[in-house]
Design brief:
Helices cover 28% and strands 18% of the residues. It is α/β, with parallel strands linked by helices. The strands form 2 sheets. An 11-stranded mixed beta sheet has the order 1-8-2-3-7-4-6-5-9-10-11, with helices on both faces. Strand 9 and strand 10 form a beta hairpin. 50% of the residues are buried. The structure holds threonylcarbamoyladenylate and magnesium ion. Magnesium ion (MG) binds next to loops.
Length: 323
């Protein structure tokens, strides 16, 4: 007899379902849940075996550390050393789409695996009612990378999670499409100076209003997830395209005649960010070549162009996993 593993189907995020997801996490299993950025694949961050199961489910390289999600700033301060600059950023942006990479506190119960061998840990207090209710009910920090196979496009709906990881997770809370649609902005520090490790859903300009000019992350890959090919669809991407060529579909932005889909016909970068991953997935399932309109590089455009550049990069290296 053939044994078939049924894919986990989404459960609407009612209070009962959230309580159930919290029990799944407390039992050391994997529960996916919505945040304001993208869906996360959650596990108890203090349970090394549970955290290891995240890496296995995603096919994630062991050198790529995870973000730990917390209920509030007080909870976050128990696990890492906050400089005054880090505290100012947390006060301004938490709860929200900001991740801070900070030195681990000596006595933190967080699994060493969440840091993947580094002496820092990435922390975030999410701003989504379902994520917040789950953190409150689980009463523990939740490690959660984006809920997609390593190297593929991040999920902005429960259906995307089922597509990529449905048979590898124990529970999936469906909270509808995620409002921001881009992962959090990741900020680290070097000798006290703030560094932009990953552009994301909070624009550089907003962060710089608090910190002053952000240094570039430099040549070294300080945020190990920032490898060239990532967010990779199957289709080939051609960026800064004025018009589609033969055999291409066009992912437009602004006034883009001939576009099959448009990230934002009214040139709104926030709307484009929210649409980016879902539209890439849709076009990827129907076309082999995707041309993309030019996207301005200010504001959220920096993060959108970052993801598009990675999606267009040649596919090689450990982040490129078969899907
Ligand atoms: O919006 C988000 O950030 C989503 C939701 C679920 O919260 N999560 C997410 O996680 O995007 P993930 O694992 O896909 O991306 C985490 C990024 C990676 O680029 C990783 O290398 C970096 O954060 N990171 C995590 N811990 C780090 C550390 N200790 N030092 C440097 N970079 C770190
Ligand atoms: Mg990811």
């Amino acid at each position: 007899m053939q044994i078939v593993t049924a894919a986990t189907s989404p459960t609407p995020a009612t209070p009962d379902a959230i309580a159930q997801a919290a029990r799944v996490i407390r039992a050391g299993k994997l529960a996916a849940f919505p945040t304001e950025t993208v869906y996360g694949l959650g596990a108890d961050a203090t349970n090394g075996t549970a955290v290891a199961a995240i890496f296995a489910a995603k096919g994630r390289p062991r050198f790529n550390p995870l973000i730990v999600h917390l209920a509030d700033r007080d909870a976050a301060e128990r696990h890492a050393l906050f400089s005054p600059a880090a505290r100012a950023l947390a006060a301004r942006f938490w709860p929200g789409a900001l991740t801070l990479v900070l030195p681990r506190a000596a006595d933190t119960p967080l699994s060493l695996l969440v840091s993947a061998g580094l002496d820092t840990v990435a922390l975030r207090v999410p701003d989504h009612p379902v994520a917040r209710a789950l953190l409150a009910a689980a009463e523990r920090p939740i490690a959660a990378p984006s809920a997609n196979p390593s190297g593929s496009v991040s999920p902005t709906s429960a259906a995307h999670v089922v597509e990529g990881l449905g048979d590898k997770i124990d529970f999936l809370l469906d909270g509808g499409p995620t409002p921001l649609g881009l992962e959090s902005t990741v900020i680290g520090f070097e000798q006290g100076r703030p560094l932009l490790l990953r552009p994301g859903a909070i624009a550089r300009e907003e962060i710089e209003a608090v910190t002053g000019r952000l240094a570039a992350a430099g040549d070294a890959i300080r945020s190990p997830g920032q490898l060239a090919s990532h967010y990779a669809p199957r289709a080939a991407l051609r960026l800064n395209a004025q018009a589609p060529q033969a055999g291409e579909v066009l992912l437009g932005f602004g006034d883009a005649p001939g576009a099959t889909l448009n990230l934002s016909a009214r040139s709104d970068l926030k709307e484009a960010a929210a649409n980016l991953f879902a539209m890439l997935r849709t076009l990827d399932s129907t076309a082999a070549r995707i041309a993309v309109s030019p996207i301005p590089s200010q504001g959220l455009g920096e993060a959108i162009n970052d993801r598009l550049t990675r999606a267009a990069a040649p596919r090689s290296g450990p982040e490129t996993m078969p899907r």
